[in-house]
From TrEMBL:
<dbReference type="GO" id="GO:0005524">
    <property type="term" value="F:ATP binding"/>
</dbReference>
<feature type="binding site">
    <location>
        <begin position="298"/>
        <end position="302"/>
    </location>
    <ligand>
        <name>ATP</name>
    </ligand>
</feature>
<feature type="binding site">
    <location>
        <position position="112"/>
    </location>
    <ligand>
        <name>ATP</name>
    </ligand>
</feature>
<comment type="similarity">
    <text>Belongs to the RNA 3'-terminal cyclase family. Type 1 subfamily.</text>
</comment>
<dbReference type="InterPro" id="IPR036553">
    <property type="entry name" value="RPTC_insert"/>
</dbReference>
<feature type="active site" description="Tele-AMP-histidine intermediate">
    <location>
        <position position="322"/>
    </location>
</feature>
<dbReference type="GO" id="GO:0006396">
    <property type="term" value="P:RNA processing"/>
</dbReference>
<keyword id="KW-0436">Ligase</keyword>
<dbReference type="GO" id="GO:0003963">
    <property type="term" value="F:RNA-3'-phosphate cyclase activity"/>
</dbReference>
<dbReference type="InterPro" id="IPR000228">
    <property type="entry name" value="RNA3'_term_phos_cyc"/>
</dbReference>
<dbReference type="Pfam" id="PF05189">
    <property type="entry name" value="RTC_insert"/>
</dbReference>
<dbReference type="GO" id="GO:0005737">
    <property type="term" value="C:cytoplasm"/>
</dbReference>
<dbReference type="InterPro" id="IPR013792">
    <property type="entry name" value="RNA3'P_cycl/enolpyr_Trfase_a/b"/>
</dbReference>
<dbReference type="InterPro" id="IPR037136">
    <property type="entry name" value="RNA3'_phos_cyclase_dom_sf"/>
</dbReference>
<dbReference type="InterPro" id="IPR023797">
    <property type="entry name" value="RNA3'_phos_cyclase_dom"/>
</dbReference>
<comment type="function">
    <text>Catalyzes the conversion of 3'-phosphate to a 2',3'-cyclic phosphodiester at the end of RNA. The mechanism of action of the enzyme occurs in 3 steps: (A) adenylation of the enzyme by ATP; (B) transfer of adenylate to an RNA-N3'P to produce RNA-N3'PP5'A; (C) and attack of the adjacent 2'-hydroxyl on the 3'-phosphorus in the diester linkage to produce the cyclic end product. The biological role of this enzyme is unknown but it is likely to function in some aspects of cellular RNA processing.</text>
</comment>
<keyword id="KW-0067">ATP-binding</keyword>
Length: 358
């Protein structure tokens, strides 16, 4: 019996857990995760992390210990059928799954756990999640739908996300479905930013805020802040009123350029004018435009697991704590990762991805 690889999350958060589980499935190797979310004030598994663990375990028929709220040590052993053309690695059956996080825990972060599995799927996988769709400390649903997935589709990921109902904090209750199909990822090359091409804006309000024109005011605040930039041509402006179990709003800006896509978001908060929500997202977009990286700050660490699978290079605007812990995790599982900083940006590269060893 293969001994599990021991990984220490003492200096990391939930992204460590999600990436480690995905890599365990891709490699069909057991892992023991210690000090899970050790860098957080409330370490261990919260509802959304437990839901992600239980979902990926169901999908790959894994044996799990430590699958309970608050657990700081987890053992996870995938049980995939070996694939004849991938030495020691497995192939994953698809299917349809339904998950209820039970809180306003992030549905988008649960989906992030599953995205890399498209590379070993043998048939489509559909996962419907009830929980938070637009909540703090995670990408809003429209960032996933209109920024991340379109970018990854450029490199071969066959994925889409459908929304049935929005879920804002604290009630959650949103419902969304991720559809994955068998995918072969191409090498990622996102080093040079191409010319700025267009701006797209997605502003959402719960039905309970419609009489205050929150979605429209958010959009107006963002566009007014961006009006001075003549390089931005507004191609799409979508203002949506959505049913939700509690009040809430979100705004996502998407900037397309010659080589990629970047996104910027903000969530409505009680006491914060809707116009200010739009301005906050616009300010992040302005900082991006003033730099030279082809991806936004939040996409940077999310692309590390993609690099581990497909290989390639990405120029990122900053080496955040999430990037640091993500790079350390990849190195701990034996993936060579290089970083070269020019003073303003950093090029992260993986010369030998998992796919080259299959």
């Amino acid at each position: 019996m293969t001994s599990p690889r021991v990984l220490d999350g003492a200096s990391a958060g939930g992204q460590f857990l999600r990436t480690a589980l995905a890599l365990s499935v891709l490699e069909n190797e057991p892992v023991r995760l210690e000090n899970v979310r050790g860098d957080r004030p409330d370490p261990g598994l919260a509802h959304q992390h437990l839901a992600a663990l239980e979902t990926i375990a169901d999908v790959c028929d894994a044996d799990v210990s430590g699958d309970e709220l608050g657990a700081e040590t987890i053992e996870f052993k995938p049980a995939l059928e070996p694939a004849p053309d991938r030495t020691g690695r497995g192939r994953l059956a698809g299917g349809e799954y339904t998950v209820d996080i039970g809180t306003a825990g992030s549905a988008t972060l649960l989906f992030d756990t599953l995205l890399p599995l498209a590379t070993i799927l043998e048939s489509p996988l559909s996962v419907t999640v009830t929980g938070g769709t637009d909540v703090a400390w995670s990408p809003p649903l429209d960032y996933l739908r209109y920024v991340k997935l379109p970018l990854l589709r450029r490199f071969g990921l066959a994925a889409a996300c459908e929304i049935d109902r929005r879920g804002f904090y604290p009630a959650g209750g949103g419902r969304a479905t991720l559809q994955l199909a068998p995918s072969t990822l191409e090498r990622v090359e996102l080093v040079d930013r191409g010319p700025i091409e267009r701006l797209r804006l997605y502003s959402t309000e719960s039905a309970s805020l419609a009489d205050r024109d929150v979605a429209h005011r958010q959009a107006a605040g963002a566009l007014e802040r961006l009006a001075h930039d003549a390089t931005l041509d507004l191609e799409e402006r979508c203002e949506t009123t959505a049913e939700s179990a509690c009040p809430g709003s979100a705004l996502v800006l998407r900037i397309d350029h010659g080589t990629g896509i970047a996104g910027f978001s903000a969530l409505g908060e009680r006491g914060t004018p809707a116009e200010r929500v739009g301005e906050d997202a616009a300010d992040a977009a302005i900082r991006f435009l003033e730099g030279s990286a082809p991806v936004d700050r939040h996409m940077a660490d999310q692309l590390l697991v993609v690099l581990s699978v497909a290989g390639g290079r990405v120029r990122i605007p900053a080496v955040t704590d999430h990037v640091e812990t993500g790079c350390a995790l990849l190195e701990d599982v034996g993936i060579d990762i290089d970083r070269e900083t020019d003073g303003e940006t950093t090029v992260v590269s993986v010369p030998s991805p998992l796919t080259e060893n299959r």
